[in-house]
Amino acid sequence: MDTAAVLRRIGCEVEFRQEQTCCGQPAFNSGYWNDARPLAERFVKVFKSAEIVVCPSGSCTTMVRNFYPELFAGHALRGEAIDLGKRVYEFSEFLVKIAARADVGAEFSHRVAYHDACHALRELHLKQEPRELLRKVRGLELVEMPYCEDCCGFGGTFATNFGMISAAMGESKAANAAEVQAEYITSTDPSCLMHLDGILRRRNSAVKTIYLASILANSSVGASPSKPAPTASGISR
Questions:
Q1: Higher confidence at residue 222 or residue 209?
Q2: What pLDDT score does 158 carry?
Q3: Cα separation of 146 and 148, whole Å?
């Protein structure tokens, strides 16, 4: 909802297609490609007519853009999947690179640390885009954690298959946020934040998690877009 609110604020026409389901990444990453493919087929069919698809997750964006071509090898939909992948963007990527709107009129007077989610950083090469957005938020103090590029330990099924390792990695990330006295940890991927939220609660930490779009949706009084932005006709989550 916060993603949609920000997109509408900058002048995008937002449509949420009710028939959408999972992109298929969990099954794909676990090696169950035959189970992932029907989900991917549905994604392509649901969004094939969208002008632009904005994903509130680097993970989902990576799946569609980088891994659908491999999943659809020899499949009749491969061409459509590749074409759609060129129109699928992670939220911060769309705002900065496509809409050219680093300042979305947000206000959030807190000390915030940014966690580089693995898929956004390593697969989509998005590092500065979320930071550009955060630096434009009125009242926000952006602080860098030590080892900000390290994995938080979630990794989808990794967190369930290797729980002790996953928790230790999350503990390290939580300690790094506390070290720089951050009030909040934010990221492009809600899955990372879900994992870190559990770690922080177990530590009784004063640090909280908040999704990037939730910060950007916190609008300053009287803010308005300075110029029209491209239309986003599809949202996937």
A1: 209
A2: 85
A3: 5
Token pair for residue 38? 């029907």
Question: Could you count the other beta carbons within 10 Å of the beta carbon of residue 165?
Answer: 13
For the chain, give the mean pLDDT.
92
72 lies in which domain range? Answer: 2-97+231-235
Q: Which of 237, 235, 189 is nearest to 53 (CA)?
A: 235
128/64 same-domain check = no
Closest CA to 58 of 2, 125, 10: 125
Residue 105 lies in a domain: no
Burial of 136 (0-12, 13-18, 19+ CB in 10 A): middle
Check residue 160 and give its pLDDT: 84
Q: Model-level pTM?
A: 0.88
Q: Which two tokens stand for residue 215?
A: 């910060």
Task: Determine the Cα–Cα distance for residues 74 and 120; give it in Å rounded to an integer.
Answer: 27
Q: What percent of the chain has pLDDT over 70?
A: 92
